[in-house]
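Go through the following before class.
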Amino acid sequence: MVSALYVVLGALLLIKLSYDVVKLRTQYRVAYGDGGFYELQTAIRVHGNAVEYIPIAAVLLIMMEMNGAGVWMIHVCGLMLMTGRLVHYYGLRNREVGWRRSGMSATYIALVLMVLANIVYLPWDLIFSLY
């Protein structure tokens, strides 16, 4: 399954972002919340934002592949998603609103493309059959 590549990359990104939060919590000695530290607030938000988008995108990508979408479509959507997430991460981390906005745009475009591909490739004959 080609989509597994992007699911693994998404999981690795989530692990890295989680590690960033843990590292900052240890550095600032903050067990709960953000302790008022901007750097920790940002790391928590970057991780949270990725957690909000990567899982549903992974499901959509897997379903796209299972429904018979072309390998090239899976790569386009997977690459756009991962690029969007990395650009968003860079933008949030470095207070670059343009990068953040571009990252979210790429993420939204990838999600919309995956939704549309799933609609096109759904096994409509099975959905509307009574068997």
Remarks:
- The longest helix spans residues 38-66.
- Helices lie at 3-28, 38-66, 71-93, 97-121, 124-127.
